[in-house]
Write a structure and sequence with these properties.
- By secondary structure, this protein is an alpha/beta fold.
- It has 3 domains: about 270 residues, Type I PLP-dependent aspartate aminotransferase-like (Major domain) (Aspartate Aminotransferase, domain 2, 3-Layer(aba) Sandwich); about 110 residues, Aspartate Aminotransferase, domain 1 (Alpha-Beta Complex), CATH 3.90.1150.150; about 90 residues, Ornithine Decarboxylase, Chain A, domain 4 (Alpha-Beta Complex), CATH 3.90.100.10.
- Helix content is about 40%, strand content about 15%.
- It contains 18 helices and 16 strands.
- The strands form 5 sheets. A 7-stranded mixed sheet has the order 1-10-9-8-6-2-3, sandwiched between helices.
- Strand 4 and strand 5 form a beta hairpin.
- The chain is globular, with a radius of gyration of 23 Å.
- The termini are far apart.
- The model has no long low-confidence stretch (mean pLDDT about 95).
- The chain binds pyridoxal-5'-phosphate.
- Pyridoxal-5'-phosphate binds next to helix 5.
Length: about 500
């Protein structure tokens, strides 16, 4: 059956809603902008309010007889070679939890690459799933992690034959990718499902020069943020399913536990429109983005003191399997500044925002939304940064641990440590104690500390010196990190 990708059911239903002049005595209370504060309308524009209608009993009828959302999801599934697609208006932070909950339950084991995002850890805390951490491939020279290999997952399954499945993050926020086909094969040999957190990979299905992606590689569930590399609105995420290891009704049921009963039609419309745009013009748009990224990469490389991480840096037998060139990860260490200083300078002096920021890098993601003009602005700002760096104060000293020092023992289940008896101790007294909270440098959002991990000096010093150097930690209970919440092991027995 040929599928008509020129259709966009959510957008069409919205047009229909306006054409018919539907009148809702329902939420949302702004009633098509009429009740919204004029000062808010001035800033947001009325189209935001006009697109914000009740999904069921507004956009579609009260029994969803128009199949608006269902049809939009079916079209999305077709575009990315999935069998089922679910839309989420709560980001991949929801999607990844729904995926995890459909594979394992309380006290069941799930193999997870330790470079997982904090939303995965939140999923462990809420569910009581026992993580079996699979070590990422650490690049000790550059101090960053690439996804674990298929052999690493195979070994973890050998050691934990009772694990219920595996979860791998690919691409990483730095753009490196896992050997998904081989990891899927390792799982399927045991009739177990593979979840891929592909939050950064919305664009991958749409150009042959981009790395392989989850559904085509044989993964069972794949989670994608359409707002990150795609043109969906913030919070727009999808999760896809194929194969018979996870029943679609079960996945839907688990997602229902987490989702809102008031999903945003604006976000649905963004997802629907992105699918149509990619199905009709994806190859052309991604081809241009790839061309532009290559130009930007070459130009950044010409700037003294900057180096763009490329395939040679990221890929290799002990490193990543593949590489997405659209996130341009720029190493500024040779300028003698940190990524934090570089990002602050770009924002303060040139109104240019970098995304990924760490102790030695900034990330500038190029998408199909960029063009020569935006790329030119970026390059001119980076050249100015290169010149200004010499006058900046010396980079604050950060104690970045070696890979083996970063890993801590998972002494308790994340859920038990998070919800059990806890106390606050000074960070200087915290080494040896079990953390009752999560501490995450953001972005990229990979927790350095998880509830249940036994804290060590090198990790605590990394976070304290990082905070002083400009690292952003959104989640510790003491944002100044003078104290840390740890398990009260006497009370916990
Ligand atoms: C690897 C990864 N997974 C999941 C998420 C959560 O995605 P969202 O921001 O769409 O909730 C992120 C967000 O940065 C991420 O980097």
């Amino acid at each position: 059956m040929t599928v008509d990708h020129s259709r966009a059911p959510v957008l069409q239903a919205l047009e229909d809603y306006h054409r018919k002049g539907r009148l809702g005595f329902t939420p949302p209370g702004h009633k098509q902008a009429r009740g919204a504060d004029p000062a808010v309308r001035e800033v947001l524009g009325d189209s935001v309010f006009l697109g914000d209608v009740l999904a069921t009993g507004g956009l579609d009828d009260r029994l969803t007889r128009g199949r608006v959302l269902q049809e939009a999801q079916e079209l999305m599934a077709d575009a990315v070679h999935a069998e089922h697609t679910f839309f989420s208006t709560c980001g991949s932070s929801l999607s990844v939890k729904a995926a995890m909950l459909s594979v394992a339950g309380p006290h069941e084991k799930l193999l997870i690459g330790r470079d997982a995002h904090k939303s995965v850890v939140a999923g462990l805390i809420l569910s009581g799933i026992e993580p079996v951490w699979v070590e990422p491939r650490w690049d000790a020279e550059r101090h960053l992690a690439h996804p674990p290999s298929a052999v690493d997952f195979d070994r973890a399954f050998e050691a934990h034959p009772d694990a219920r499945g595996a979860l791998v993050t690919s691409p990483t926020p730095y753009g490196s990718t896992a050997a998904l086909e081989a990891i899927a094969e390792v799982c399927h040999r045991r009739s177990l499902p593979l979840i891929v957190d592909e939050a950064w990979g919305a664009h991958l299905p749409f150009h042959p020069d981009l790395p392989s992606w989850a559904m085509d590689a044989g993964a069972d569930i794949c989670v994608t943020s359409i707002h990150k590399m795609g043109s969906g609105l913030e919070q727009g995420s999808v999760f896809h399913l194929r194969g018979d290891l996870v029943p679609p009704a079960l996945l839907g049921m688990r997602a229902d536990l987490l989702g809102t009963t008031s999903p945003s039609v604006l976000i649905f419309a963004g997802l629907d429109g992105w699918r149509r745009q990619m199905a009709l013009r994806g190859k052309e748009l991604m081809g241009s983005a790839l061309g532009l990224a290559a130009e930007v990469r070459a130009a950044v490389e010409e700037i003294d003191g900057m180096h763009v991480n490329d395939r040679d840096d990221f890929c290799g037998p002990e490193l990543a399997d593949g590489f997405d060139p659209l996130p341009c990860v720029i190493d500024v260490a040779d300028l003698g500044i940190t990524g934090y200083q570089a990002a602050d300078w770009l924002r303060g002096h040139r109104s240019v925002d970098a995304h990924l920021v760490d102790h030695r890098r900034i990330g500038a993601q190029i998408t199909h939304g960029d063009d020569r003009e935006t790329a030119g602005e970026l390059l001119s700002a980076l050249r100015d940064l290169g010149r200004a760096a010499h006058g900046m104060p010396a980079a604050p000293r950060m104690e970045v641990p070696q890979p083996d020092e970063l890993r801590m023992e998972q002494a308790m289940l994340p859920r038990d440590a998070f919800f059990g008896p806890a106390e606050e101790v000074r960070v200087s007294d915290a080494a040896g104690r079990v953390s009752a909270e999560m501490i995450t440098p953001y972005p990229p959002g990979i927790p350095a500390v998880l509830p249940g991990e036994r804290l060590t000096g090198p990790v605590l010093r990394y976070l304290s010196t990082g905070l002083a150097a400009g690292m952003y930690l959104p989640d510790p209970s003491d944002p100044g990190l003078e104290t840390i919440r740890v398990v009260d092991e006497r009370a916990a027995g």
